[in-house]
Amino acid sequence: MNHLALDEAARAILRKNDQGGYTLPTYGLYPYQWNWDSAFAAWGFAQFDIDRAWLELTTLFSGQWPNGMLPHILFHKPDPRYFPGQDVWDTDGKGPIASSGISQPPVAATFARMIYDKDPQEGRAHIAALFPKLVAWHRWFMSWRNSDGMIFITHPWEGGRDNAPDWDSAMQAIDPVGVDAYTRRDTAHVDASMRPTKEDYDRYIWLVQRARSLGWDDAKVAQDQPFKVADPLMTFVLLRANRDLAALADALGEDRRELDRWTAELTTGAQGLRNDAGVFDGYNLNLGHHAGTVSNASFLCWFGLVESPKMLAELQEAFADSRYPVPSQKVGSGSFNAKRYWRGPTWAIVNMLIGLGLADMGHTAEADELRARTAKMMSEHGFAEYYDPLTGAPAGGASFTWTAAVWLAWASPSAGGV
Ligand code: DGY
């Protein structure tokens, strides 16, 4: 297929997964609106339908809780094909619509800025409406998920990288006693060897039950949850998003000083994520140690405008070790698994964020190389949820919204390069 046919196929995926005001990540496996999926979808739509892009973000923020938290799933319409549904989360009365009780990586401000920059005249009213909501969400992270400028998560689903080795020690420290009986639905849609294990799921559900028993109280969850891991992806994504929000503040004539303070705090705090090898890595706040891993999140430093010669050297290794980098776990490391979700597969969404960061920091050759290899992987293997980094074989869900969006906005030759 030539790239124009692939552009059309990618647009068709966005249209097919479009529910009117929001977009499903993919049919079957994920039948609701997911937070960061939706932000990527908006950026994909912005390549051919800017009104639809703004609608995606507006619908997403219609689920924001009064405390500023933007949930990771909005259950617009009940669907038995997914577990855990709204009955398990039991967040009734916390937000305007049924939702989960945790958030997800705050990429929305970055894409809002990029969509605005495409057409400032059309976008002005939209960013004026979204700006206070984005600030309230970022303030929620800075208030309740901030440890000395490192952003931590209280559930693996909050960071989006569900079974990343970064969380292994925190997960092993949990004894999931008392977890209610449940039936997984994900393995009815995707081969179990590509998904988290039963041991992971027992702990995912146990953590939901525990936060539920704390009434989803911000202070209690932040203090008492046994799972508390500072995350390079969350930290670099929020750092970048704060800068983008400050640029939107300038466009609107709003005060940006609070945003600049957060940016300074996160820039300093991110250094605490460096492990002994100098790699940005998960940090278990309860046990006081790094995970000792190189993940694709480690390479998001440039997206947060943080320079790292060590990570540039690691990137060259990733280029040498895998035909389709960047693997979510270093090839050859003990926990590497080419097919299992966030323990090895390559994710196009993370590649795009890494590539944007590399380009912003002047590493043009590396940015071009990453984009070219990602484009080849997608042209040869379609728009999968994730890919085997060694062979490019598709894995997880098919016809995936955010992968199609990444094609349209970044990987396709029509996107105009980094
Ligand atoms: C899932 O259900 O697999 C999701 O990652 C949770 O958000």
UniProtKB/TrEMBL annotation:
Belongs to the glycosyl hydrolase 63 family. Gene3D superfamilies: 1.50.10.10. It comes from the Bacteria. Residues 30-403 form the Mannosylglycerate hydrolase MGH1-like glycoside hydrolase domain. GO terms for biological process: oligosaccharide metabolic process; protein N-linked glycosylation. This is Mannosylglycerate hydrolase MGH1-like glycoside hydrolase domain-containing protein. One of its GO terms (molecular function) is Glc3Man9GlcNAc2 oligosaccharide glucosidase activity. Pfam families: MGH1-like_GH. Keywords: Glycosidase, Hydrolase. SUPFAM superfamilies: Six-hairpin glycosidases. Signal peptide: none annotated.
